[in-house]
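User: I would dearly like some help making sense of a protein record. This is the protein in question:
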Amino acid sequence: MPLSRRRLLQLTGTAGAGLLLGACGSPSNGGAAGAAAAVPELTQAGYDGPPLTLDLWSGFTGGDGPIFRELLDQFNSENDNIRVVMNTIRWREYFQVVPNAVAAGEGPDIGVIGIDTVGTNAARGVITPLDDITDVLGLDEGEFNPNVWNAGLYQGRRFGIPLDVHPYGMFYNRALLEQAGLGADPPLRERADYMAALEALRDAGIQGQWVSSFLFSGGHVFHSLLHQFGGSLFSEDGTRAVWDSEEGVAAMDWMLSLIRDGHSPVDIGQDGELTAFQNGQNAFHWGGIWNVGAFSELPDLDWGVAPLPVIGDDPAVWGGSHHLVVMNQRPDEDKRRAAAVFFEWITRNSLGWAAAGQVPARTSVRESPGFAELEAQAIIGTQLPEVAFVPPFPGVGDAVVFLEEGFQAGILGLSPPQEALSGSARRATEVLEANAQRFAAQPRLPERA
């Protein structure tokens, strides 16, 4: 349904009171609990019912928006009885607005959410299980990379169908590398090779890799290194933040060494490392695949991309993913069947979406000749088995806030690495404990028959 700016502001303004209402609606107003009590189960694929419209909400308000709309237009032109209409909301508002809209019975039929929010929205009752949809479509991890496929589960049930993966990659400036005598495309996967390149750049008067103290991109670089050294953000059961491990300290120490050894300035501003790369001031930028489009529009920037160097013991890289979901609104079997048709189509035809700076989640698309022609996306896509996602525990975003605080304190030298990481992990663990109690007290979606 169309969402007016006035209604958007109303839903955002009530977020503090409404974020937990996703599982507390009533049958009379079409709210979440009422809908969940009678979610129809699909037993066959396809849709041959009367014409209908599916309302889809997403956060694709940037350059990715027009590309996604083109895909929707193509789908609509190929399906006479299903029309998908997209409403876009900035991501920072999206995860406030959607739970409130669903609770009020004013939410969309389907949506796109971040992989790290799957558990939160499932626990709140904002989204419905999709096991029946994947069953009738015959979708399983054989059709997807197992890493991203399994991340769409919550308590053993499927709530998200992966559309894409957007990992980090190592972007490099060919002109600066040649200036340092390294050649335009040197192999830099091994730590020794990468460190030697940084030293050659420094000898040539070039700072190789700038270190950001902000979550984008410094925090994601830390996340990648933490996993490379064998650590993780959280305990396996999601009850504790454990980024203050010796692996976490090792990751931060390496980043600090870049500053100490003159490869990076101290205390750069938000996106300073990205701007410097675009302006030819540094040779390497560890950043998201979504930068491919922006870099391609800079005629004076001769750049390439490679998987992240393995600084620790094993390859690992931060990555996110968009997942397709069905919102927990008033049950409608026709719309659920139509949603299944759309999910099958959009994942199978996601090559066009790759142009927006994404790696298609579906294996057949990634293995197609068309994707191989998208050289940068294909290179970054080789890292899919190495992607370390933020785990989709309910309320995990509340805990990640403290990761940024601790990481920033350590990188800026406000506290020693161990102290900075331990203090932030302790506060994050307190939040995780509080969230566990909060979500446990909420009504659950009924188990499938």
Observations:
- The domain at 167-319+392-438 is CATH 3.40.190.10 (D-Maltodextrin-Binding Protein; domain 2).
- Residues 417-440 form the longest helix (24 residues).
- The CA atoms of residues 279 and 441 lie 52 Å apart.
- The first strand starts at residue 52 and ends at 58.
